[in-house]
# Entry
Amino acid sequence: TPSKFNVQGTLDGTNWTTIQSYDITSEGGYNSKYFRIDSSNTTVNHAYLGFRLEVFETSGYGTGGNEVASPTVLHTLVLSQLKFIVEDYNEDALVQLFPSSLVPVMTSATAPSGNVVYSGYYSSWLPWNAFNTDLSNGWHLEYNPVGEVSNHSQRYIGWYNTSLSSKKVITGVF
# Structure
């Protein structure tokens, strides 16, 4: 699970801007299910048409139990029920009183709407599974990665839709 990662935004699905960085390695990894975005990062300058997680380090379950994050040990990256909590941005103000999940329950990489972006996947654990409600399924990037690594390749998962009627400001990741 992610322990050191960025939340990024896009206007076109190609160019990504880091909104906020997280480093929870000292906590032994993902102990919280919800990450708030600092209020300084929820302004008009941070309104986008999609978001992704860019993951640098993970913590995970190994043969010895829970393993803490490490920059040299690659753990399996697994995500399910990922939600980007957003508010609508409308020229002058945030107009949505109650934040909501941006991504619909996905049934493929492009249905029912938008585009799932990802750096890879393992077997039948397809990336769009990270955005559905099935607890028994999710997105796996790799399976049983081998021990020590010195350079991690970029690992990310996200969603965007350039056809949205308004830009969104992210307020949290769940």
